[in-house]
Amino acid sequence: MTKPADSDQSNDSANDSEPSENLLGFSDLGLSEPLLKAITALGYEQPSPIQAQAIPHLIEGKSLLGVAQTGTGKTAAFALPLLSRIEPNKKKPQILVLAPTRELAIQVAEAFQTYARHLKGFQVAPIYGGQDIRGQLKLLKRGADVVVGTPGRLLDHLRRRSLELDELQAVVLDEADEMLRMGFIDDIETILSSAPEDSQRALFSATMPAPIRRVAAKYLKNAEEVRIATKSRTVEKIDQSYLIVHYSHKLDTLTRILEVETFDGMIVFVRTKSESTELTSKLEARGFSAVALNGDLNQALREKTINRFKRGGIDILVATDVAARGLDVERISHVINYDIPYDPEAYVHRIGRTGRAGREGKAILFVTPKERRLLKTIEKANRLELKVMPMPTGEQVSEQRIAKFQSELMQSIQTEDLTTFRELVEQIAHDTETDIGEIAAALVMQSQKQRPLYPTFAPLPDASKRPERGQRDQGRDRPNRKNPSHDSGKRRDAGDRGERPPSRRRQPREPDADQQRYRIEAGKSHGVRPGDIVGALANEAGVEVEYIGSIEIGENHSTVDLPDGMPKDVFEHLKRVRVRQQPMNISLVSGDNSPGLSKPAKSRKPNKKLSLKKNRSA
Ligand code: AMP
Fold first, then answer.
1. 103 shares its domain with 44
2. 158: domain range?
3. What element of type H or E holds 588?
4. Which of 128, 329, 467, 541 could make an SS bond with 471 (beta carbons 3.0 to 4.6 A apart)?
């Protein structure tokens, strides 16, 4: 077994030197042309450490034991080399992937489909419990090149002889420790022993408990072993924290951080070139001065961008790892890991961009609920304990906006000649017999319409709370844990109970924990589109767009999720607001039905600041 690629490196400080960099590009790894084309289109700039280590072995046909968890890029680490070796259209599976849950099976199948988009006639079949078996039988009969499935259902198909393994080139066990934890170990062994003896094997697992080691010793003889580096570095002086945040709330979270943190220069790390340009445009649209720094920039443009950043012409760089390499800019006070780095090494490398030249720096890491384990690895390897950063609240954002408003106002008072305007105000006060304070209040109200000083904020759903046990397991292809060897023919996987439809069809979901669902009496038949509802809510009630949740448009009515705790005056006003000429007639759907008030059971105080903005009339 080979040693981890960088296990012989020294423990140097990230601030003083560049950590080891894996300089291999995707084109150095022996991948076939159609796959390289797909990777380029996806915007992947560079192989992740697990990819750089695993791909060369797998492309040579060797078996592989990979210690890696979700978020490290492990799916591409096996999918790319194995796909490079197959001949599509053989009408029988050449690659079989075993995954613990149907969610993962679907995700992996989708990844295969994406990577194989330039392989003509390529077919992948996701096979899992909970889905009508007839559809799967059809799919397999038509001939899939790759089958990705949960062990229970795969075994059913093997027994029915609908899954034939005689053309199989490779078997992958993905998240093997998870499959063990779920009691699939016997099923896995049965499947592995049914695969051709000379087929290539790959096993990926976040941990290597003894039963997994035993399976590896028996079915993955002479496997190469790769793992992501676990050496530690010192990163004192950098204040490090993390936030558990759902993928879909990353942008809102970043926006709040940008509003409440006092920063000089900031780097926001993302994974792909496309993400860096997309996020940059979204930040610009929200009024922040950001520029993308990615591998698509030629050297001259890169230098120009960095110089502008150094001089303070830009405050935020949205960068990929490759592009930020070697960046040494003193004014970087903050590093935001918008996408978690692949490994502990990359984490230290990234955060080392701040705290330069003896200054203090701050590093904030976004972790999606699925990436918690990778966070643990990063902490353990770097001997760190990151503290939890609380989600910035609406009040904090409001305070910052007011402070900024006040300072800009003072700046005008101190530096501008206001004589003419002062005379105008006095004139208006005199003519209308209005108090000057009242006039000032009206001016403030008008000036903050685009960026309200008291925005309608609701806490984003707390992603750090784990779902209830039952919820979490829902959808898992879970066998009888007490008796894992129980005859799978009789067994009903959790999925077989049909709790959830198998397809990716969108289901109306419950509103998030801190939101309530409202019904609007206007729908498709009135020509209503989601944008109309957003527009009406934002313009008529001053609800900030980012706090408008999911919108469903029905035939004659629609629903919208809005922050919990809407004050009664806003609610009453919204009833009269029109959308596509129809009065909204808004009413509460979720929770109790007392109109316009937050749930009394929670005794939530309505946010006084969420007052009705009396702008355009309904
Ligand atoms: P995984 O660990 O396989 O769950 O992958 C985590 C995420 O990283 C997925 O969204 C992949 O699309 C993405 N990813 C994988 N490899 C790369 C790469 N080399 N560059 C950028 N993103 C990648």
1. yes
2. 9-227
3. strand 587-588
4. 467
